[in-house]
Amino acid sequence: MKVSSYLLLALFCGLLIYAATGFPNRGDAQAVFNRPTSPAGTPNAPTRYILKSKEEMNTDNMVTTILADYRGYDTLGEETVILTAGLICFLLLRKERKRHDQE
Amino acid sequence: MIPTNAPALTPLLFLFTGLLIPLAALKLKKLAYWLALAATALASAAALSNIFRVLDGRAIHYHFGGWPPPIGIEYVLDPLSAFVTSVINVIALIVLIHARRTVEADLPEGKRVPYYALVMLMMSGFNGIVMTGDFFNLYVFLEICSLALYGLVAVGDRKSPVAAFRYLVLGMIGGCFYLLGVGFMYMNSGSLNMADLKAILAVLGPRPGIIVALAFMLLGFGIKMALFPLHGWLPDAYTYAPTATSALMAPIGTKIGAYGLIRVLFFVFVLQFITQTVPVATVIAWLSAAAILYGSIQAMAQDELKRMLAFSSIAQVGYIGLGIGLANPWGLVGAVLHILNHGLMKACLFLVAGNFRMKLGHSRISRLDQEARRKMPWTTAAFTLAALSMIGLPPTVGFFSKWYLAWGAVRNKGWVFLAIILLSSLLNAVYFFRVVERFYLRPKQKGEEAGRTAAATSGRSEVTVSMLAPTLILAASLLVVGLLNAVLVQGILLKFLPPGLAALKP
Amino acid sequence: MTRNEDNPIITLVSSIVAPFIMLFGLYVIFHGHYSPGGGFQGGTVLAAGIILLRLALGSELGQKQFPSRLGTPLGSLGVLIYYGTGLAALLLGGTFLNYAFIPFSSQASHNRFWGILSIEFGVGLAVMAVLVAIYDDLLEGEPHG
Amino acid sequence: MANFLVGHFFYWFVFLLMAIGLFGIVLKRNLIKKAIGMSIFQVAIILFFVASGSKWGGTVPVLDPRLGISDTARYINPLPHCLMLTAIVVGVATSGVAFALIISIWRRYQTLDEPELLAKMKNDPD
To answer: Cβ(C71)–Cβ(B38) under 8 Å?
Structure first.
């Protein structure tokens, strides 16, 4: 069991290193995801965010504009995730305190 | 207004109800259930009407925030997503009608409010996953429904938190692997949108990063759909969860992973990539074949009915995986048809298990006998019908999806798969007749001899209508959908075939 | 958990510092347009302020400042503010979350600006309420005394 | 080769963290240590995304009037940062739920050691 776990871990690391052979160097401003257009000619999203967010939202912070507007639906999902966690903690733990108080 | 917003309708409706329930419950706690039921009914209606919007085969795109796809997030309503949302919402509606009594029995009043809120959030996660056209958005909604499921499992009986924790650990690894896959995909292509990625990947061709990204994404979905070696969380989670939860997650939960698999394999990558360049489809097919055998054999050894159904679920997920792995039109139609069929069958069977727990106080196979049938004739009849369908006897739905799968296996010259499909029907027959035989042939057991006169005078004690009706509706639908399957396949299922596969059809 | 309720240094310092922490949290929420920050970060800082008070002054006084039964409803309300902003855009003719359709002002870019501010407020409220609620719920597991 | 090793230096670090996290999840017996492993794994993924967004010579993605917006290479890629804010929240939520589950397991079985827990569960009647 233990040996197979180590083997799986080694396989995982091997896959990661294999994948890294195709990566651009860290900090490469000419990497595929930093160019103005994607290889297929469609517009590249981050370039657009940097260039247009001031104009379109009157906002300096590009992360805020992406978070709240360009990809705002993700953030709604994110809030839902944390609300879900709150509800689960309520569901699992809260009631037992009342029982505790009654004792 | 509704037609333009059609794709976003169902997830947003569930989300709204999930947010409303905790607030509404401040005034009136009973409101929670009725709000949940009303939202599910509305969403089912919306999902069914969505099918008619896309019957001409054209997808409806919905841009959140008004930003076109590579910039913003889009929802895509195409025949496949319309079909799958209809399936999950209608099944959830039927199960929720049944859930009222069982949740009342399983949970104290204060906990019902967050329970129903979590059910709504989970449904919004499911609908969001099916509708989305963006990989990162899919991750967010995957996490919503997974988190909600951990909570819903953990309120079951004494052992349920342990089952939920194991589910959480595996589910979180699955989610992280999926996210890592998305990251690798982004590193290599610079896009998160599915349609955009399809165009980019066609230009880029196979690269180490993309191959590993595909592997990690499949691993993530494989854990969520409990494909054979990754199924570790499933049996305990299904067994120890409350009745309502297991009836909701068994028909719907694993199917979402299967849907994700179909989306990634056939709608982002081209057919040649997944069958020849990197033969992941073959790997999935063989794993699924192993899942069918493993699940069926394990199911035979179980005594607890819910646990037997859980292992049977692993086998049935194997059928779906096999259909995906065959990577031809017949296999894919069989897989998607089996998403519907298995949803109906498993929901019916888990409702029957819930009825037994409600009236008999247990669902152990070794303690079932003719008495169960005498007390609950309708419930046992529904079980028998569902069992026949699981085995795959002709007029029921189970036969038709297996028929398509078998046909797909023949077309691929996969004789081993064909043999496994046939063999598994035999195994299904063995473990389901083991239960059915007890209802109709096994006389009452000795220990309960004393209670015989009392039971004979009281006669039937079937569950209440709100629990019996959903069970019977599902059982009847097994026959109806079975008879209508040609309409279904011709009218809807053949419309969604991805371009690469549609070309294979003669 | 053992806690020395009479330790004057802890009580004094945390009751002086906590308001500033919360003020900073509000600053982070509402200044997210111009500097690193935003709803989630600010909400976390606000929650940290509340939790600090709970740790220092004991849960009884802390409950008076922010009753834990409010946690989940306030969290829902926060997300509902977010959702409502999106829904308003939908009802006014745009797609969901298209703030340009909400008439805060005459210019589309200003509409988006105010739309972002309103959802950041919702996010901050939700994160603060839910994080405090999670803290409270996890503390319930502590065997008291 | 040297360029490959040095240019991807940060990724090696992140991959090591991932392996440590997975090691914790798979091989540790204590449930809390498993939860810690989960957190490490998640943080490693977050670091990976953030590292992919960096550009040499780039500054934070907040508009600086002195730099202007004519040259996109001056600002680092904001998209991974935004995605990772979401992923951080998901991580927080998952940890919260994990600890809630651990607490309810502790209340029922008074142990967090996995083999011991399984033994206690086996003795449990139902």
So the answer is: no
The model's pTM is 0.93
Q: Do A77 and D86 touch (CB under 8 A)?
A: yes
Give the C-alpha separation, A56 to B482, whole Å.
Answer: 54
User: Does A11 fall in a domain?
Assistant: no
Among B80, B16, B75, which Cα is nearest to B43's? Answer: B16
Q: Taking CB atoms and an 8 Å cut-off, how many pairs form between chains B and C?
A: 46
Domain ranges of chain C: 8-140
Give the closest of D60, D89, D100 to C36, CB-based: D60
Helices B305-326, B280-300: crossing angle, 10 deg rounding: 160
Does residue A62 lie in a domain region?
no
Query: Do C140 and A68 lie within an 8 Å CB cutoff?
Result: no
Q: Does B162 touch chain D (CB under 8 A)?
A: yes
Confidence at residue A98, expressed as pLDDT on a 0 to 100 scale:
46
Is residue A2 assigned to a domain? no
CA A44, B58, B142, B334 dihedral sign is negative
CA angle at D119 for the pair D118 and D121, rounded to the nearest 5°? 60
Q: Is the pLDDT of residue B228 over 50?
A: yes
Distance from CA of C116 to the nearest CA of D (A): 14
- Which ipTM score applies to this complex? 0.93
Q: Is residue A34 part of a domain?
A: no
How far, in whole angstroms, is CA B350 from its chain's centroid?
13
Compute CA B35 distance to the chain's CA centroid, rounded to the nearest angstrom.
23
Domain boundaries, chain B: 301-444+460-501
CB contact A84 to C (< 8 Å): no
**What's the structural domain count of chain A?**
1
Domain that holds residue A97: 71-103
Query: What phi and psi values does residue D72 have, to the nearest 5 degrees?
Result: -70, -20
Q: Is D46 on the interface with B (CB under 8 A)?
A: no
Question: Which residues of C fall within a CB distance of 8 Å from D104?
Answer: 141
First to last CA, chain C: 7
pLDDT 10s digits, C50-90: 999 888 887 777 788 888 888 888 999 999 999 999 999 88
Chains with 3 or more CB pairs under 8 A to chain A: B, C, D
